[in-house]
Amino acid sequence: MITCELLVIGAGPAGLCSAITAAKSGASVVVLERSPDIGGQLIKQTHMFFGSKEQHASTRGVDIAEILREEIARYDIKLMLDTTALGIYEDGMVTALYKEEEYMKFKPGAIIVATGACERFLAFPNNDLPGVCGAGAVQTLMNVYGIMPAKDVVMLGAGNIGLIVSYQLMQAGVNVKCILDAAPKIGGYLVHASKVARMGVPIKTSHTVKRAIGEDHLTAVEIVALDDKFNQIPGTEEIIPADTLCVSVGLTPLCELLAMAGCKLSYIPQLGGMVPLKTGEYETSVPNIFVAGDTSGVEEASAAMVEGHIAGLCAAKRLGHIPEDFDAQYSSLNRQLMALRSGPAGEHIRQGLASACLNKEA
Amino acid sequence: MRIENHPVLDFKRGKQISFIFNGKAIDAFEGETIQAALHAAGVRVLGHSLTLHRPRGFYCAIGNCSSCMMVVDGVPNVRTCVTPVREGMVVELQEGKGIIE
Amino acid sequence: MFEKTGIASPEMVLEKFPPLSRINKGKVAVLECYRRIPCNPCETACPFGAIEIGEDINNMPILHADKCSGCGICLTRCPGLAIMIVDTSASEEYAELTLPYEFRPLPKKGDTVFALSRSGEFVCEALVLSALNPKSFDRTPAVRIRVPKKHLYDVRNIALIDKEG
Fold it and tell me: The whole model's pTM is what?
């Protein structure tokens, strides 16, 4: 059994930032990460980030991962890679599996769960055909391993991920046939949409996939237009030859560990699904279990990093490590989050978070 | 097929190795996953579903979905998208639930 | 339509351009940021204080064209690749546009490329005057092309001419 002050689960942007800030405050930190490397999804983000200087705006995601790696190395943080957290028990014990070989137990003083989110799926005929895959999956192939993921792609979803991955596919030399979205408007930032539009890629809003076509592997996608009630309009079907259909229809928080720990969860569609309720100090309904990042509501990575810093600061405080400028740090980080969320792009997040508020005294 | 000239990334590949897929030698680089190496070699079908025997390929590539499970060195149900490829490894299509000897 | 296609209308584009009198004097930035998003690196990057976003980072950037030198630093810093540099001072016939181009292969000085519109359609052929990708640009190369002046407001991208057809 390993005893530690703070256990952070997940070494993505939220987990790493929470570890850094908690360690800066004086806590000793152990980070569990199921992958062989840190950074989470940052390591496949080749585009420059939005936000402002404090969240490394204008720096590419891959480079932010390196910045965080260097910061982590400067503090009392023990990284345990290839280690998957399996459960949080009633006595606060955490179990984990190293490389599918060795089981481990941890007894932490506090836990920050920063397990991120996973891709949603969509039901349509033949959606299990090889060649139908997540947008994150082609990113992994092309941006982590440098492998051509496809020749001709149909992208399903014009949110930020669908738009960004389409652009990245073209940077890798892949032909993007079109981008579909069932919604009548593009969901992602329009600067991203303009980037792909001027490469000649049509964005077809009010369109979806009718079926995937192929025997052993995808060879074409049948698309169809939708009316304003999202019903398919007969006669608008079109068959587009493609070897890959990328599904990018949103993310949903990975909060299984929180559910097992007994944290109160609530279904909040604006935040991506079931999310934990949390206090202003990012603590869940179970004392000493904190959350940060997409686990507690799907948002941009910039916000996940700031949330990580707040959760790290507050978890360290709970462990008795209170920096002199705690109040200043806390309010400055909250100001950053407010700035990131205050525009029209953050409206759904603001609505969702209002419902995810946990009043501890109640 | 591998990407050689990328506008943002510079791929640092490991040592070239070779492994066996369904009796055929396939080239790979150390540090890649089995699924990534198979994809680079043009392999799309990694197994077949239990009941209807429909072809299965990768879906998430980060170990979440189990669509890429294969038999690796005799061990069934290995998530090939998160398992590193090794020299001489024997990889087979997964058919059915698999046999544990 | 912009919300459906990502393609800005000619009226929207015109509104973002500095007046022709300014463009005729030399290089100046065009900030094609049409919607409020939380982002301000252009303001932070400009060494001349020519780009103003202000306290709320969701504000759209305002260009103070009198302070803008057309240096192009913002062009390489904008995460949305929404900035280009325009200049009509060099000749009677041609406008010079500097565009971000994050693709391979990069064109070379002296190449002829296709100039494309905001929807990726062919507008005209264009001569490449320079294609710069120094370390300070952080892998967002800037390609300067020359197009007939009448296409100043139409061109926003380039495509390399495939020699094999």
Answer: 0.96
